Amino acid sequence: MPSGTASSWVPVALSSDLPSGTVMPARIPAGxxxxxxxxxxxxxxxxDRCPHRGMxxxxxxxxxxxxxxxxxxxSYGQAGNCLRIPAHPGLTPPEAIRTVTHPVAEAxxxxxxxxxxxxxxxxxxAGLVPxxxxxxxxxxxxxxxxxxxxxxxxxxxxxxxIRLLLSSAREGETLIHVLVEADASPxxxxxxxxxxEGLRRKAEDxxxxxxxx
Length: 213
Ligand code: FES
Description:
CATH topology of the largest domain: Rieske Iron-sulfur Protein
Number of strands: 15
Structural class: alpha+beta
Number of domains: 2
Order of helices and strands: EEEEEEEEEEEEHEEEH
Number of helices: 2
Largest sheet: 4 strands, antiparallel
Strand content: 35-45%
Bound molecules: FE2/S2 (inorganic) cluster
CATH class of the largest domain: Mainly Beta
Radius of gyration: 19 Å
Distance between the termini: 26 Å
Shape: elongated
CATH architecture of the largest domain: 3-layer Sandwich
Strand order of the largest sheet: 2-3-4-9
CATH superfamily of the largest domain: Rieske [2Fe-2S] iron-sulphur domain
């Protein structure tokens, strides 16, 4: 999502990068997240900080429908509530022990996180599907300069040979999701991946030159 837009959905990861029973780190402008998918396939997102002693929950593990912290094993549900404290197996954890969670939507192979109150549903990709994601050490402005065009309010940038979904990870860093037509041939997919890598290099160069000025 380009900064300064009204959109409240951030494309943080591709569905294919988060199999059932796994957790991964992700990021929205508000900070780092633990993004996880339960064994039954439900995706949830919480702040990447265990309420106990602050361990990153993205280092934890998924068991069934819960996310457990790697440090002392406290387990959390999809709504962020603590469900189990292994050192006190007979205790029902107080309601006040919970992680901060964020609304999640999954559509067209992309996992979106709502920043604040979700405004409707995530943007439709109109027949495009995600191919892969790239992390760029360049802000969205540098990527737009390298592409010679601007991303729209949903973060979709379309140039002659390339379609990208951009997510501002943090200042000077962008997560690039490469999109292709759903029926793209293998050769077209390879070409799209190469074009995105070339654009990333150019954008990182712009970013470095801008920072050096
Ligand atoms: S820091 Fe997470 S359970 Fe202790």
